[in-house]
Amino acid sequence: MNYLCQKVLVGFFVFGLLFSFPVNAQENKSMKDDLKLTFEAMNADMKKAFEANMQLSEKEKYTFWPIYDQYEKAMTQLNASKVRMINKYYEGIFNKNSSEIKSLEILNNYFSLQEERLKIKKLYISKFQSVLDDSKVARFFQLDNKIEAIIDFDLARKVPLVPYK
Fold first, then answer.
1. Which pTM does this prediction carry?
2. Residue 15 — pLDDT band, cuts 50, 70, 90?
3. Considering its fold, how many domains does the chain have in total?
């Protein structure tokens, strides 16, 4: 991984550290705003990371970026669903008057989002193969998975465990 990619990935991690999730109900709205901003900033930085590490020819750039934009749009919609799921979870934790957190519903939603993410990735393999050689397609998904792992690590660090009854 080259220096610029390392810098961008470290930037994702540091950016994530700046946003700590709330510990009380008054901070719940702030947490929602921070979470949304985090995903928006990461989406912008991801394109820079791919640009720096894909080493595309001019012809490849011309055909790759429109497909990437479609892929990113699909993933952004999925991330919006993930944000809504996390917000719902936080509302259950921080709203003392709310009904019990629907833990299994949230867990099932999480797995559904993971399945949908995998479907999208599989769908886009052939689309990227139509404009890139196999090694560049593999490199793209390798970079994508590394960035996703950093984001997931940051979320796992911030989202509290489901409380016992």
1. 0.73
2. very low
3. 1
Alpha carbons 140 and 125: distance in angstroms, whole number: 10
DSSP character at residue 161? P
**Does residue 8 fall inside a structural domain?**
yes
Which residue range(s) make up the domain with 122? Answer: 3-158
* Residue 117 or 12, more confident: 117
d(CA 165, CA 155): 23
- Angstrom distance (rounded) from CA 8 to CA 50: 10
Classify burial at 23, counting beta carbons within 10 Å of its beta carbon; exposed 0-12, middle 13-18, buried 19 or more.
exposed
CA angle, 4 as apex, 13 and 158 as ends, to 5°? 5
Closest CA to 49 of 117, 121, 118, 1: 1
